[in-house]
Design goal:
By secondary structure, the protein is mainly alpha-helical. It has a domain of 62 residues: Helix Hairpins. The protein has 6 helices and no strands. The radius of gyration is 27 Å and the shape is elongated. It comes from Solirubrobacter phytolaccae. This is J domain-containing protein.
Length: 111
């Protein structure tokens, strides 16, 4: 059973987002493995804090490690292939508007 994220962070249920963020930052600084050595306990507590924060913020927990997600993304990009570029219709419209303004300016100069 998953732990209550508010209890993990030591917050009252339904705390304001600003309070949640402030508490999260304070706890992360305190329990970061780089500060407390790479002991299994500090790493576990740090991950527990991060998961609780993610749960409160409503973000989905990522599937797999960063390397696995990156490999999956690269495979998806290879499947799509290069993007074919054509003439952008909005650029064509802007160019024709500018040409029209140039013609109008020339006509006004002749007056």
């Amino acid at each position: 059973m998953a732990k209550d994220p508010y209890r993990v962070l030591g917050l009252p249920y339904g705390a304001a987002p600003g309070v949640v963020l402030e508490t999260y930052r304070r706890l992360v600084k305190t329990h970061h493995p780089d500060r407390n050595g790479n002991s299994p306990e500090s790493t576990r507590r740090f991950q527990e804090i991060q998961l609780a924060f993610e749960d409160i913020r409503g973000r989905p927990v990522p599937d797999g490690s960063i390397e696995e997600r990156l490999a999956k993304l690269q495979a998806e990009l290879k499947e799509q292939g290069p993007h074919k570029r054509g003439e952008d219709p909005s650029l064509t419209r802007v160019n024709s508007l500018i040409d029209g303004l140039d013609d109008l300016a020339s006509s006004l100069d002749k007056l």
